[in-house]
Design brief:
- This protein has 298 residues and is of the alpha/beta class.
- The chain has 2 domains: 7-235, Aldolase class I (TIM Barrel, Alpha-Beta Barrel), CATH 3.20.20.70; 243-297, no CATH class.
- Helices cover 45% and strands 15% of the residues.
- The chain has helices spanning 18-26, 39-45, 69-79, 95-98, 110-123, 143-152, 175-184, 198-208, 217-221, 225-235, 243-256, 261-272, 278-286, 291-297; strands at residues 7-9, 32-38, 60-65, 85-90, 128-135, 157-164, 189-192, 212-215.
- Strands 1-8-7-6-5-4-3-2 form an 8-stranded parallel beta sheet.
- Helix 8 (198-208) links the parallel strand 7 and strand 8 (212-215).
- Helix 1 (18-26) packs across helix 11 and helix 12 runs antiparallel to helix 13.
- The longest helix has 14 residues, at 110-123.
- The chain is globular.
- It binds flavin mononucleotide.
- Flavin mononucleotide binds next to strand 2 and helix 9.
């Protein structure tokens, strides 16, 4: 696949709704992902409110999770005509997910990883990618083993978020592991973890030689980061938008795509973090119930 920018928006539960993805695409993200969606839920119902992909979204990836091969195959077949790439979650560290044998727990079972990737590849003609961590804990770093298995089974791309499951979201992201995977694989590698600004994007690309950089938390506060990096590449300089300009752009899209208000409120909270007087503003936002009211307050 070809992408217009080397910087992608990470899949984030309760965050990457259609309006936010489109905002980041408009600002220049090369690829955006839905939040993780249960393949079992998709297989059983076909319709799922988390699968909110819009026709204008090109390119767009859906992220699936689960551990039932039959459900995974059915889920892929239900949605593959509406998306460009299918990503599979093998990195979620949350208790309720790993206790069910999904997300990062899958990395403890390389033979099953092989079966999942094989099932995904056989179920669709669309490209498949997986998103993985370093391993389960510091004593079981197996990111390279899993990456090699995925490549051999036909995955087209791999995202490496180099923290272990036991680190959760904390601690250092070991970018050396991204480099190790990149050095040993032929398919494109997406580096992810602790990228906070344009300098970090540059640094990750040069230190790890990864093909693409995926941004999560930094984009929730500053979705304009994609434009900043693209401008920096072209001109050596980049500007910025105020928090209120980004919120204005997001609210316009949230209205258009009738985004669930909990997501909208969440985004305004993220994008006002660090703004002077924002603690009081955020308290007022927590009492608001509609986009209309939110626009007036902002
Ligand atoms: C609120 C939140 C929700 C997330 N949900 C998902 C998810 O649904 N699927 C996934 O693969 N990763 C998820 N992640 C992890 C991110 O995709 C990313 O790997 C992580 O935040 C590291 O990138 P960063 O340091 O740029 O934030 C989530 C992260 C956050 C902060």
């Amino acid at each position: 696949m070809k992408f217009e920018s080397r910087v992608f928006l990470a899949p984030m539960a309760d965050v990457t709704d259609a309006a936010f993805r489109i905002l980041c695409s408009n600002y220049g993200a090369g690829l955006t992902y839905t939040e993780m969606i249960s393949s079992t839920a998709l297989a059983n119902s076909g319709k799922n409110k988390l699968f909110d992909v819009q026709e204008c979204e090109k390119p767009i990836a859906v992220q699936l999770m689960g551990n039932n091969l039959d459900h995974i195959s059915k889920a892929v077949k239900r949605i593959d005509d509406k998306i460009d790439l299918i990503d599979f979650n093998m990195g979620c560290p949350m208790k309720k997910i790993v206790n069910a044998g999904c997300g990062a727990a899958l990395m403890k079972n390389p033979i099953f990883v092989k079966k999942i990737v094989n099932t995904l590849v056989k179920s669709t003609k669309k490209p498949i990618s997986i998103k993985i961590r370093s391993g389960w804990d510091s004593k079981s770093i197996n990111v390279l083993e899993i990456a090699k298995i995925a490549e051999k089974e036909g995955a087209s791309m791999i995202t490496v978020h180099p923290k272990t499951q036991s680190q959760l979201r904390d601690g250092e992201a070991n970018w050396n592991l991204i480099k190790e995977v990149k050095d040993n694989l032929s398919i494109p590698v997406i580096g992810n973890g602790e990228v906070w600004n344009v300098q970090d994007i540059e640094k990750m690309l040069s230190e790890t030689n990864c093909d693409y950089v995926m941004i999560g938390r930094a984009a929730t506060k500053n979705p304009y980061i994609f434009k900043q990096y693209n401008d920096y590449l072209k001109t050596g300089k980049f500007g910025k938008l105020t928090n209120f300009e980004m919120i204005r752009d997001y609210l316009e899209l949230a209205e258009k795509y009738q985004t669930n208000f909990n997501y909208v409120r969440g985004h305004v909270m993220y994008m006002t973090k660090g703004v002077e007087g924002s603690a009081k503003l955020r308290k007022n936002i927590s009492e608001i119930r509609s986009i209309e009211e939110l626009k007036k307050l902002i």
